[in-house]
């Protein structure tokens, strides 16, 4: 736990560095451009399709009719856009995480390594194409898990458990791999991720809850539809900062663990100390034998 806490406060301190704050703007600009571009071309079609789907469900139509009867007619027009935003939010989160992993993680790893571990050897156990495929594959698995688990979010306790668990698993897989990709060999990376699986999963779970926190800005109800462009931009920036902190946290932890692993191996590989050559050629003389005491005759 001391290593986890040490990595935590170091990562928090690094987040206030101007270089880290400036780096967070690049994923923000890229993801914001993609989000607004997709919204410009597909928002109307998505809302229309969602509204047609809701109208085809008798139960939803009955519920909306009851809401119209009690004076909540405005909710009918806002339900479809809200559901489109709800389905788009997991994609935005995964997109932000992948952009941080691709655009920020290499620079952040170099920053930590240069300042704390300048003598740590780089064994290049994870080339860029392998890290990219690893991140994309686990990102797709996380999106699939989120979509499959969405019906269970209607159960009040599970909505506070399932999404952070999925974010935590994704963060553990992506951030730990990226932080070790350049410095650790394949065998070292596998050994560290196996030996430190529980602490790394705990880091992922905490960052998963941190990643779920920005979703609170969508708790404006119907107003979220009108404020959607601003809320999308703010949420992407918050996700970027959270995932940048997560990258730094994982990097400080795994590089310290890698250094300790190599130091332990170096200690175990040291040869046993040999006696000096002079002692081998000229061994010490044997101690003189003491004369045995005289035998006493019978009294």
Automatic annotation (TrEMBL):
UniProt entry tagged with the keyword Transport: no
Main location group: membrane
Record field: compositional bias (Pro residues): 290-299
Alphabetically ordered keywords of this record: Membrane, Transmembrane, Transmembrane helix
Region Disordered, residue ranges: 273-299
Membrane-crossing segments per the record: 20-43, 82-113, 134-155, 161-180, 200-230, 236-255
Low complexity biased stretches: 275-289
Pfam families, alphabetized: EI24
Coiled coil: none
Membrane topology per record: Multi-pass membrane protein
InterPro entries: CysZ/EI24
Location in the cell: Membrane
Protein's name according to its UniProt entry: Small-conductance mechanosensitive channel
């Amino acid at each position: 736990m001391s290593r986890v806490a040490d990595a935590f406060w170091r990562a928090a301190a690094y987040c206030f560095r101007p270089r880290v704050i400036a780096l967070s703007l690049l994923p923000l600009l890229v993801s914001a451009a993609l989000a607004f571009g997709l919204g410009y071309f597909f928002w109307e079609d998505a809302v229309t399709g969602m509204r047609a789907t809701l109208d085809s469900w008798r139960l939803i139509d009955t519920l909306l009719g009851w809401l119209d009867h009690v004076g909540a007619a405005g909710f009918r027009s806002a339900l479809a856009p809200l559901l489109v935003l709800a389905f788009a939010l997991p994609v935005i989160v995964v997109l932000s995480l992948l952009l941080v992993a691709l655009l920020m993680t290499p620079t952040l790893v170099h920053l930590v390594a240069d300042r704390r571990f300048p003598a740590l050897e780089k064994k290049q156990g994870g080339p860029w194409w392998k890290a990219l495929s690893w991140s994309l594959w686990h990102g797709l698995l996380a999106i699939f898990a989120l979509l499959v688990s969405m019906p269970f979010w209607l159960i009040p306790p599970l909505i506070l458990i399932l999404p952070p668990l999925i974010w935590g698993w994704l963060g553990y897989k992506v951030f730990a791999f990226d932080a070790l990709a350049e410095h650790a060999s394949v065998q070292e990376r596998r050994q560290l991720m196996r030996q430190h699986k529980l602490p790394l999963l705990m880091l992922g779970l905490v960052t998963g809850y941190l990643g779920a926190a920005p979703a609170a800005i969508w708790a404006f109800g119907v107003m979220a539809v009108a404020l959607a462009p601003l809320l999308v931009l703010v949420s992407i920036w918050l996700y970027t900062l959270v995932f940048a902190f997560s990258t730094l946290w994982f990097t400080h932890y795994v590089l310290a663990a890698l250094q300790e692993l190599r130091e332990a191996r170096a200690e175990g590989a040291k040869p046993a100390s040999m006696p000096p050559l002079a002692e081998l050629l000229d061994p010490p003389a044997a101690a003189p034998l003491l004369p045995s005491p005289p035998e006493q005759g019978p009294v």
